[in-house]
Structures are given as C-alpha cells and as structure tokens.
Amino acid sequence: MTEKAHLNPMLKLVLDLGPLVLFFLANAKFGIFYATGIFMAAVLVALVVSYILIRRLPVMTVVTAVIVGVFGGLTIWLADETFIKLKPTIIYVLFSVLLFGGLALRKPLLEIVFDQMFHLTEEGWRKLTIRWAIFFLVLAVLNEIVWRNFSTDTWVSFKVFGALPLTFLFAMAQVPLLNKYAPPETKD
Question: Looking at the domain assignment, is residue 1 inside a domain?
Fold first, then answer.
C-alpha cells in the first residue's frame, strides 16, 4: 500500500490563505465584484496546484471551491454582494453539521482529515471534533453579525483580520488537548 503524498505545510498554508489575501487586496483596490472574480480564480488555481503536486483533491478544499464558485458566480452574475457574504456562513455551518453528523454516526470526521498530521485516542478525536464543530457555528454567527451590520470593507477586513486570526488562536488552544489525548506510543 502506497502512502499518500502530502503538501509541505508552508505551501499548504499559502494555497489555503493566498486566495483570501488576494480577495482582501483586490477588494481594497477594485471593489467587491472584481475581488470576488479574483478570489474565484485564485481558489481554482490553488486547487489545480494542489492536484498537480499531490495527485488528489482534498475533500474540504473541493467543497470550499464549489461553494466559492457558486456563490461567487451568483455575486457577479446578479451584481449582488450578499451571495459572497453568505458563503462563509454556509461553509461554517456545513462544516459544523458534517462534524456533528460524523459524531452522531460514531465517526469523528476530523480523524479522517487530520489523521496524517497527528494521532489521538478515540476520546481525543471526539472532544476535538465537538470543539471544532462548535467553533464553526460561532464563526457562522460572527460572519452573519458582521456582514449584516457593517460595511462591505469592514466585512472583508473581518474575514482576513478577524476570522483568520480567531481560527489560528483556536487551533493553537487545542494543543493541550492534542497532547493529553495522544496515544502513549506517540507522546514525547
């Protein structure tokens, strides 16, 4: 059995965050509609580069790309920025529902996504999955609050300087759980 190829973590970070950074910069320079088109193109390029390098498409990346394509396309086609603003809410809720659904079926989906990155006991995967599912719901609510109550520029800034740092901080806050529930043979 051959082992799956994996992206260098820094390259993966660039492929994941690059489109968002381009979206932010394009919005500041050209406005939300051009930024949406650039975002859509950048997500597609990141997907293609990822496929070329590892010869497969990560499921979460594909789901995100499809939602970006649909809602970005609607934003541009209908000249209505509401659709691109709804996209994060839909993605966050979808991820949360999938994570909670996996738990209900007794299969923590995070274990599938992060299996190569770290190993946890069954209890650890369950707790980590619950935390991320709740976190995604919180992000969905925050996105709704920001886009419905503030300007488009503020919403775009929130995506880059609010949601993104919150996600990194939340991920870092999970390190004690990762250490506590690592199987004995993988602990330092």
Answer: no
Considering the domain boundaries, does residue 4 fall inside one? Answer: no
As given in the structure block, the two tokens for residue 138 are 């919180």
- The residue range of the domain holding 126 is 9-186
Is 2 inside a domain boundary?
Answer: no
**Overall average pLDDT of the 145-151 stretch:** 97
- Total number of domains in the chain: 1
Classify residue 121 by its DSSP letter. Answer: -
Judge if pTM exceeds 0.70: yes
Q: Which of 99, 105, 94 is nearest to 127 (CA)?
A: 99
Q: Which of 88, 63, 179, 92 is nearest to 127 (CA)?
A: 179
- pLDDT on residue 2: 53
Q: How many Cα atoms within 13 Å fall on the side-chain side of residue 79?
A: 0
CA angle 146, 64, 96 (to 5 degrees): 65
pLDDT, tens only, 73-117: 999 999 999 999 999 999 999 999 999 999 999 887 877 776 567
Residue 1 confidence (pLDDT): 46
Indicate whether 3 belongs to any domain.
Answer: no
What pLDDT is attached to residue 63?
A: 83
